[in-house]
Each structure stands twice: as structure tokens, then as C-alpha cells.
Amino acid sequence: MHLSDKIYVAGHQGLMGSALVRGLMALGHNNLLLRSHDQLDLTDQHAVQDFFAEERPAYVFLAAAKVGGILANSKYPADFISKNLLIQTHVIDTAYLTKVTRLLFLGSSCIYPKHAPQPLKEEYLLSGPLEPSNRSYAVAKISGIEMCSSYNKQYATHFLAAMPTNLYGPGDRYDLHDSHVVPALIRKMHEAKISGADQVVVWGSGKPRREFLYSDDAAEACIFLMNLPESEFGTLVNASTVFPIINIGCGEDLAIMEVARIIAETVGFKGSIRCDRSKPDGTPRKLLDVTRLRRLGWSPRTPFRDGLVRTYSDFKMQQNRVGESHVVTR
Ligand code: GDP
Fold it and tell me: Which ligand 1 atom sits closest to the C-alpha of 178?
């Protein structure tokens, strides 16, 4: 990507998209195309087609999606499948119609079967049943991968699907019910510290294991992939590859109870941590095999504790902006 190339970051206000914008701008890219949801509704096919016809982006990072934590996925499965199918179908199809040079479609590690061997290799996709709690989201993302694959085969497009592990970082949604575990626990522990509560509740048994990647590292990996020389990018999206996908992770995971303890230390919460086993555990483990990405020459730079310190600062800044009593939820 040249610094003046037109690059569309779909979903630039989200956790992944905002990190992509920071990463691209830090490198000096000066022709970013950004549209908020109010300016461009990606579930509206005509709006997407008009936008691409007018702006003609050369590169697309497709980070726009309806996302949420384990309970949000169980509560709104219809939204998760319908919105994501619409967004990705419109953007991927229109990218083909307007001859986008390269597109990177962002998925998630929940696309892999619930009981697949660990660490999860790219070729395990569609080798077994999915975790039920986020199946509608996973099926939508798998459809997006299949779209990239099918368009590459039929139309020789260069559409790659990147599967990041669980992400955390600045600009996340710190919602107690619908967000992912890291932002939810940052908020719970912070509020417990401020109110002097002596206990924080962690959902489930605390035993599931998850891998976490700082959002700016994930963005750096995406930009690295988009900039691969044609020989390497072409091999990843080649019509003869089974799926044009690549995992993005750090290759290490932690039990949720360990995560809770590290967040407590970061936030300065000194009380006890209790498990609420009435809440779901979800999939027991989701550790990505990152051999493919490492071989290409990328590995993450931010240790979990350092990323948490930065994320907690971001949380406090969000709080200061809107007052102690009202945390922004985006
Ligand atoms: P998942 O990776 O798709 O399961 O997404 P989450 O980030 O929502 O949850 C990861 C794990 O953390 C699950 O086992 C949850 O039960 C557990 N967990 C513990 N406390 C919380 C919490 O307060 N919020 C969320 N979202 N998950 C929690």
C-alpha cells in the first residue's frame, strides 16, 4: 500500500477499526476513507454500492461487524447473523464489482469447532460442530470466509480473511452485560474499588482458557498482511488453497480466573473474586496456532500486562469524559 492509496477502513469506530486507523496514520497513510454508521449503513446494499462507485478505494479493511461477548451472543443471535451477513456480503461483493486491489476480512477465533485440537490450525475450519453460544456469529463469519474463497476462485480477486484471537484495547465497549470479558472485568473491578466493595463476580467456572491480543498489535498484523509482497499474499489467497485464512494471535492463553487476578492487580482491586456458575463458560479453550503468521515474519510486541495498563487508562479517560456515573458504551 502506498501512502497516498485510498484505503477504506470499514468499522473505524470499533476496537479493531480504530486500532487500524491509528496504525495506518502512524505509518503516514494520508488517504483513509472513514464513514460512521450514521454516514453509511453497510446493511444497505445500494448505499454501499454508491459509496464504492464514488470513492473507488484501492484497499479495504473489513472490520465492521456486530460483535459482543458471550451473553450478547446468546441474547441477540438473530442480529448477529443477519447484520453480519448483510454487512460482509455487501462490502465483499461491491469490492469485487469495483475492482478493489486487496481486501482483508476480519473474523474471529470462534469460527473453529468447539472441540477442535489445540492450538487451532487454519485447516480445522469446518471440521466439527461449533460452540452453540456464538454459533450465529460464527456461521456469519464462516460465510464471509467462504465468500472470500469463492470470489478468489471465480473472479481471481485478492480477498484474505484474518482470524484474530480475543482482542482488547483502547476504545472498547465497557458494558457490564454485553461486552467481552476484559472490558467487563476492568469496569467491574474499577467500580468495586471505587465503591469499596469487597467482592467481584466472574462469570462461569473461571476455568475456560482464552488467548488475548492487544488491538494495536492485531492492527499491525493486519497492515503487515495487506502489505505482503504479491508472491506471499498470492499464496494465501490462491484459488487452490482450502481457505484463504490466517490466524492472528500471540500463541499463549490464560485461564479466566488468572485473567481476573491480573486485571485486579492492574486496577488495584484488593477484594475477593467469586465465580458465578449460573453464567455460561462457553468454549473450553480457543488458542490459535500462529505458525503461518510467524513464518511470514510477524509476531506481537505488547505483553498482556502492559496492554491492560494502557486499556485501563483508556477506560478512565472515557469515564472522565462523561462523568463518574455514566460510562460511554459504544
Ligand atoms: P468468548 O471468548 O466468546 O467466550 O467471549 P467472552 O469474552 O464474553 O467470554 C470469555 C470467557 O470469560 C467466558 O468463559 C465467560 O464466561 C468468562 N467471563 C467471566 N466473567 C465475565 C464477564 O464479566 N463478562 C464476559 N463477557 N465474560 C466473562
Answer: 26
Mutational test site, ligand 1, from 180, 263, 286, max ligand atoms within 8 Å of CB: 180
Our answer on whether the CB atom of 178 is closer than 6 Å to any ligand 1 atom is no
CB 143 within 8 A of CB 33: no
DSSP β-bridge partners for residue 245: 161
Mutational test site, ligand 1, from 67, 70, 209, max ligand atoms within 8 Å of CB: 70
- Which residue from 171, 150, 186, 109 is spatially nearest to 317, judged by alpha carbons? 171
323: pLDDT confidence band, cut at 50, 70 and 90? low
Q: Is 76 one of the catalytic residues?
A: no
Mean pLDDT of 268-286: 95
The phi and psi torsions of 246 (rounded to 5 degrees) equal -145, 135
Distance 131 CA to ligand 1 centre (A): 13
- Determine the residue type at 85: L
Ligand 1 near 69 CB (within 6 A): yes
**Cα distance between residue 273 and residue 206, in whole Å:** 10
Residue 208's CB is within 10 A of a number of other CB atoms, namely 21
Q: Is 110 in the pocket of ligand 1 (CB under 6 A)?
A: yes
The whole-angstrom distance between residue 3's C-alpha and the CA centroid of its chain comes to 25
User: Over the stretch 65-121, which tens digit does the pLDDT of each residue have?
Assistant: 999 999 899 899 999 999 999 999 999 999 999 999 999 999 999 999 999 999 999
Give pTM, 2 decimals: 0.95
Structural domains of the chain, with CATH = 7-324 (3.40.50.720)
Q: Quick one: the chain helix, strand, coil %, rounded to 5?
A: 45, 15, 40
Atom of ligand 1 nearest to the CA of 210: 2
Residues 6+ apart with CB under 8 A from 284: 114, 207, 208, 209
Where helices occur in 196-246 by DSSP H, the ranges are: 215-226, 230-237
- With a cut of 70, say whether residue 330 has pLDDT above it: no
